[in-house]
Write a structure and sequence with these properties.
By secondary structure, this protein is α/β, with parallel strands linked by helices. The chain has eleven helices and eleven strands. The protein folds into two domains: about 210 residues, Rossmann fold; about 55 residues, no CATH class. It binds zinc ion.
Length: about 300
């Protein structure tokens, strides 16, 4: 049976011939296994395997509207139809699957097993070598992924996004960035702690300033459609606890106090919900009044001309 989006050799981009449990490239002779029905173009990644597993079945929920980065995807894709490639898909997101034929790529096989419940096709592949032909997709999306790509590797990933997009196709990405707000400046004042508690646990090895993300997409030959600087110096209580409920508390009394408040706010689900609701409103306000350089994330929509 023909696949809606055929898999192609990640090295030479020729369509692969598919057998029982393997794929072969008739052009360059390379072969790729299929593991439990999942085409595998890259070996296991010890860091990411099993890290982001949960499928997200939301597609227009109140939370999607409230959480700024989710609202960006919701408003950017609402009413649109076409093929979607989700880069670093984890367990998958129904919001993306609803757009049309959805394909997820990730390095974590266990995440892909879950993503299969939402997406038509999944593949274990690197973002720098996508297993698809040129011009395969109407949309290429990523959420909280490009901050995990090293600074040296980003150019290749951007070129791949451009390559697999159709002309007139759009790429929507929420990218984690290096915010220059007072709290992150404090955090970076202790490079070892910053690395240990903020960068390493999540693999945020490729954070750069939000403005640099915009330049990268433009530099890849893409045309800006929408750019939103987000989370300027403010974040949710749970995230603050995750980052600072550690040796950082011994470095600053105000941070110690904020951690205590945030821990109270996350002590019980209903309280956390109320706190996050309040925080969402503060984030909206902060994003209006604070400078762009403070942004801890950026939502970008670009089009391939
Ligand atoms: Zn090949």
């Amino acid at each position: 049976m023909a696949r809606p989006i055929p898999f192609a050799c990640p090295k030479c981009h020729n369509i692969l011939s598919e057998a029982q449990a393997s794929f072969a490239c008739t052009a360059c002779g390379k072969g790729y296994p299929s593991i439990d029905g999942i085409p595998s173009f890259v070996g296991e990644d010890a860091f990411y395997e099993g890290k982001w597993l949960e499928p997200d079945f939301s597609a227009g929920s109140p939370r999607n509207w409230l959480v700024k980065k989710e609202r960006f995807f919701l408003s950017g894709l609402r009413g649109r139809k076409g093929s979607v490639l989700d880069l670093g898909c984890g367990g998958g997101w129904k919001l993306f699957a609803d757009v049309g034929v959805a394909v997820g790529v990730d390095v974590s096989l266990s995440s892909l097993r879950n993503a299969r419940r939402l997406y038509s096709q999944v593949a274990q592949a690197k973002l720098s070598e996508l297993p698809f032909e040129d011009g395969s997709f109407d949309f290429v999306v990523s959420s909280d992924v490009l901050g995990h790509v090293s600074l040296e590797g980003k150019g290749t990933v951007l070129r791949e996004i451009y390559r697999v997009l159709k002309r007139g196709g759009r790429t929507l990405n929420y990218v984690e960035t290096d915010g220059d707000d007072p709290i992150m400046r404090f955090a970076k004042g202790y490079p070892e702690l910053y690395s240990k508690h903020i960068v390493e646990p999540e693999g945020h090895i490729g954070l750069e300033r939000a403005a640099e993300v915009v330049s990268r997409f433009a530099g890849a030959g893409l045309r800006p459609v929408r750019v939103e600087f987000c989370y300027k110096g403010l974040t949710y209580a749970g995230r603050f606890v995750q980052y600072f409920d550690n040796e950082y508390k011994g470095k600053s009394a105000p941070v110690r106090g904020l951690v205590a408040i945030c821990k109270l706010a996350t002590a019980a689900k209903p309280i956390e919900l109320a706190a996050n609701l309040g925080m969402s409103l503060l984030i909206e306000l902060g994003d209006v009044v604070f400078p762009e350089s403070w942004a801890g994330g950026i939502a970008v929509c670009f089009e391939k001309p």
